[in-house]
From TrEMBL:
Family the entry assigns: Belongs to the YkuD family.
Record carries keyword Ubl conjugation: no
Active site: 216, 233
One BP term from GO: regulation of cell shape
Keyword match ATP-binding: no
PANTHER family found in the cross-reference section: L,D-TRANSPEPTIDASE YAFK-RELATED, LD-TRANSPEPTIDASE
Species for this entry: Solimonas marina
Protein's name according to its UniProt entry: L,D-transpeptidase family protein
Residues in the signal sequence: 1-26
Superkingdom field: Bacteria
Domain L,D-TPase catalytic residue range list: 123-258
InterPro entries hit by this protein: Cds6_C (IPR056203), LD_TPept_cat_dom (IPR005490), NTF2-like_dom_sf (IPR032710), Transpep_catalytic_dom (IPR038063)
Keyword entries, A-Z: Cell shape, Cell wall biogenesis/degradation, Peptidoglycan synthesis, Signal, Transferase
Pathway annotation from the record: Cell wall biogenesis; peptidoglycan biosynthesis
Amino acid sequence: MSWFSIARPAALAAGLALLSAAAAPASPEQRFGAIVDLLSDGKTSDALHSLQSLTASDPNFVLGRQLYDELQTRLADAKNDTDGAQLKLLARDARLRLASAQAIPKVGTMPNSVLQLANSFKHLIVVDLPRARLYVFGNHDGKLELLHHYYAAMGKNGWGKQVAGDNRTPVGLYHVTGWIPGKQLPAFYGAGAFPINYPNLWDQFKRRTGYGIWLHGMPTDTETRAPLSSEGCVTLANTDLMALKPYIDPGQTPVLLSDALSWETPTQMKQDREAFMGRLERWRHAWSSLDTQAYLDFYAPDFTTEGMNRAAFVRHKQRVNALKTSISVKLDDISLFRYPGSDGDVLLAEFSQHYRSSNFSQDSHKQQFWKRQADGSWKIFREENR
C-alpha cells in the first residue's frame, strides 16, 4: 500500500473536521461579543438587528435580553446623545457584562492574592473588579472551594479609590463589619448592606479618604445595574445579596477587592507561601530570643506604627526589652496575602499573637505589612495590633 493511500483518508478526515468546525454555529456569548463590537464601531442598526435575532433564537440568554432592552431605551433617547457617547458607554458596559459571565476559574485554582487563609475564616469573598464578578469560597482546613459566583457592579469611575467622592471602588483586603437590613435603609440599597472597614490600615497609610463602602442590593424595581454605576460600593441583585448572608460572619469575613485577579494552583503558590512563612518565623524567633537588634532589622526605614516612626519605635523597643529577662511569642491563625493593587510588592500577614514576657502578657490580633525593598529583601513597614 502506498503512502498516498494511507495519508489520503487521514487528510480527508482532517479537512472534514475543519469544515465542520467552520460550520459550527457560534455560541450566544460569541454572538454577543460580535454585537458589542458592532456597537463600539457605531453600527447601531446592525447591532439592534443582531440582538433581535439573538433574543429570538436564545430567549434564555440573559445578557442578550438585557442589552436589547437597554439599547432600545437608549435609542429612544437618541436626541440627547448627539455624539454617541451614551451608546459607547453601553458598549463598554456590555463588554464588562460578557467578561463577568465568562469569568469562571478552573476547578482547583485559587485567587493568586490568597497565599494562606486562617482556619478561623470559614468563608472568603473575592471581587474581580475588572470582570465585575464576585466569588464566594468555603475554607476547609486552608483549602479554598469555590461555592458560588455572581455578577457585581462597582463605582461609576471604576476601581482604585483615593479620595471621598471619586466614585471609585477601593482595592484591598477588608473585613465585613456588620449587616444593615433593607428596612433600615433608603430603598436605593435594596435588601440590605454589608459595610466593610474602608479605609483600612493600608488606606490610612496611603492617606486615602472616604467612607461608607458597602456590599449592598439595589432598588426592588431594578433587575440589574450597569457594571460601573455606584458611588464606590459593590452592588448585587437583591436575591444574590441575600444568598451571601449564610457565608458572611460580621466582624470576621475577609473581602478581597482585586484590580488584577489571576488564578493559580496551590502548587504554584507554595514557594511564595513558604518563603513568607519563613520570614515571619525568623521575625518571631528573633523577638522571642531577646535578640533586639536582629528583631529590629526586620523593620524598614520608612516603618511607622501607632504614632511612631522607626526611630521612635527602635528607642521604645530597646528600652522595653532591656527590662525583660525572657520573652515568648507564639503565632497562630495565620493568613497571608499578596496585597491587591501593589503589583506584588506588598504582602500582608494577619495572625493571632500570644506574647508572654517576664513582666507582661498580651493576646492580640496583628496586621503586618511587608514591602519588597530595592535590594529584593522584604521588610515590615507597617503593623498594628487590634
